[in-house]
């Protein structure tokens, strides 16, 4: 999943312009409390209320690798994530002690990442071709490929709440969120080229020019298959001749000119000098060459299949439900405390492959993948020490240890639950104009098994700032900006189980957000 700050590994919590400018809204008693604090909505008073928000999100993901076989290491792969539309829509109706509310937002994902040169995991298998071919006796020094990858992820949340005011201090709420999830993967690996030097396949493979890898391996497969067949046929013919009384010690120079030419050709292809060899030794050698040529032909066929163009056009869809409970407690008009618990969301995504574009068998049409979202405990507090000054605090715990992030493969990827915490401050310059700023930090509890170049998480710090202005008694406008930076994470991923391919990958991520929101009040506050 493509995750957008703020939030947990797969859950977004930045769901209003007010959040963007303050970073701490768990104790909200405004209209965005539909998401942050449903029980607190009873403090809005009687009437109807609507909030319309949008955030424009820009995120850069960077993967740096020193894998030595890649062209021009160290290499940097950059993924650009863009989400020009990231809505938060909320509606509330209050009557007496009851509050009914509904909301819509991207509860997970929300953007699309484009890697114009692919990712290390896509290019690394290709980069080992020169080394592998050279080790097999086909000197090769270069490769090239056209690689592109784009992934999108959005989990829309449709939330419905009911809240009840027990007394002036205490309110309770309950709700349900319907989560509709969709991931898409599009891309290709094509036009793989190499510069082999292998005279056995013809003069065109002389190491001076780049040639199509699939074509080279196809020709190689055919050539070795023919050599294997000839070795087998000639070895069999000599065996029959020896069975008919030809001594094994007979020099091969006593054979027919045609047989001598065939033997010389086969020995030459294998780099063997047959001078002075007798018929018995030649027969044994030809039998051995048959096995070797056949193995090389199979290897060439494998390389041909692995370097053939691959395209991906895949979609994953699924839906789930999230029960939600909340409590709001206000012992005085100077202090507000909130507690919200979201239960685990069970999500199973079904894979759809379009036009057979499965990335070479990476995806399978009709497959199911576990994509659960963790339970969440959200705590918030707001204190008003003096008139016009408010201080807000947040503490969130995402129960990741109860979620299988391996997609059903039963691999332990979580060491401890993900934590989120922050502090924000708002000051009213006038009765209509308010300024705010806030900070939100995270502490991730992932194990190295979770991290890869397509999905990674590290501790982060987010800083928000902005303002609110009361246009009229019925309309407020909120404007905010946010900048988030994740700490670099280094990993030494295994490659093909071979220590000689040891390398380091460094993952980093930065996010910028601009938000605007309008709050409408159709009742007396």
Write a concise synopsis of the structure shown:
By secondary structure, this protein is an alpha+beta fold. It is built from seven helices and 19 strands. It has a 19-stranded antiparallel sheet that branches.
**Which class of secondary structure composition applies to the elements?**
alpha+beta
| Fourth-level CATH superfamily of the largest domain | Outer membrane protein transport protein (OMPP1/FadL/TodX)
Low-confidence stretches: none
CATH architecture of the largest domain: Beta Barrel
The first-level CATH class name of the largest domain: Mainly Beta
Write down how many β-strands occur, each being a DSSP E stretch of 2 or more residues.
Answer: 19
Please, could you describe this protein's structure?
Helix 5 runs antiparallel to helix 7. The mean pLDDT is 91. The chain has 525 residues and is α+β, with helices and mostly antiparallel strands. The protein has helices at residues 17-22, 33-36, 120-127, 129-135, 213-243, 257-270, 279-307; strands at residues 47-65, 75-83, 87-95, 98-115, 140-165, 170-196, 211-212, 310-332, 335-342, 348-358, 368-370, 376-386, 389-398, 418-428, 433-443, 460-472, 475-486, 489-491, 505-521. It folds into two domains: 17-194 and 309-521, Outer membrane protein transport protein (OMPP1/FadL/TodX) (Porin, Beta Barrel); 211-305, no CATH class. 19% of the residues lie in helices and 46% in strands. It contains seven helices and 19 strands. The longest helix is centred in the middle third of the chain and has 31 residues, at 213-243.
């Amino acid at each position: 999943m493509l995750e957008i700050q703020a939030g947990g590994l797969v859950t977004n919590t930045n769901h209003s312009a007010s959040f963007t400018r303050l970073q701490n809204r768990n104790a909200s008693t405004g209209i965005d409390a539909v998401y942050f604090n449903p029980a607190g909505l009873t403090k809005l008073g009687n009437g109807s209320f609507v909030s319309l928000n949008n955030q424009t999100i820009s995120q850069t993901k960077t993967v740096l690798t020193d894998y030595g076989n890649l062209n021009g290491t160290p290499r940097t792969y950059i993924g650009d994530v863009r989400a020009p539309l990231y809505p938060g829509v909320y509606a509330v109706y209050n009557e007496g002690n009851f509050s009914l509310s509904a909301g819509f937002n991207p509860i997970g994902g929300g953007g699309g990442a484009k890697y114009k040169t692919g990712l290390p995991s896509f290019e690394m298998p290709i980069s080992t071709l020169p080394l592998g071919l050279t080790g097999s006796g086909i000197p090769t020094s270069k490769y090239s490929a056209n690689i592109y990858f784009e992934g999108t992820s959005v989990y829309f949340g449709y939330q419905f709440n009911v809240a009840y005011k027990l007394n002036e201090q205490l309110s309770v709420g309950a709700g349900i969120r319907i989560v509709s999830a969709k991931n898409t993967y599009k891309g290709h690996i094509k036009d793989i080229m190499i510069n082999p030097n292998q005279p056995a396949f013809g003069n065109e493979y002389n190491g001076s020019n780049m040639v199509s890898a699939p074509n080279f391996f196809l020709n190689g497969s055919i050539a070795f298959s023919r050599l294997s067949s000839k070795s087998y046929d000639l070895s069999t013919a000599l065996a029959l001749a020896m069975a008919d009384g030809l001594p094994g010690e007979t020099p091969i120079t006593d054979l027919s000119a045609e047989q001598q030419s065939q033997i010389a050709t086969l020995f030459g292809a294998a780099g063997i000098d047959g001078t002075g060899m007798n018929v018995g030794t030649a027969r044994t050698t030809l039998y051995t060459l048959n096995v070797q040529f056949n193995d090389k032909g199979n290897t060439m066929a494998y390389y041909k299949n692995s370097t053939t163009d691959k395209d991906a056009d895949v979609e994953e869809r699924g839906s789930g439900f999230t029960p939600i409970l909340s409590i709001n407690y206000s012992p005085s008009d100077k202090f507000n405390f909130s507690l919200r618990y979201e239960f685990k969301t069970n999500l199973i995504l079904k894979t759809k492959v379009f036009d057979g574009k499965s990335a070479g068998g990476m995806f399978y049409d009709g497959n199911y993948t576990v994509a659960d979202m963790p339970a969440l405990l959200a705590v918030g507090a707001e204190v008003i020490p003096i008139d016009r000054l408010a201080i807000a605090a947040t503490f969130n715990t995402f129960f990741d240890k109860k979620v299988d992030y391996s997609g059903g493969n039963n691999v332990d990827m979580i060491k401890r639950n993900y934590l989120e915490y922050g502090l924000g401050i708002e000051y009213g310059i006038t009765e209509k104009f308010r300024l705010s700023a806030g900070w939100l930090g995270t502490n991730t509890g992932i194990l190295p098994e979770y991290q890869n170049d397509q999905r990674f998480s590290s501790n982060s710090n987010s800083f928000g700032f902005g303002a609110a202005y009361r246009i009229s008694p019925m309309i407020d406008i909120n404007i905010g900006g946010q900048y988030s930076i994740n700490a670099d994470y280094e990993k030494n991923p295994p490659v093909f189980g071979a220590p000689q391919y040891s390398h380091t990958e460094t993952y980093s991520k930065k996010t910028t957000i601009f938000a605007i929101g309008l709050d409408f009040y159709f009742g007396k506050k």
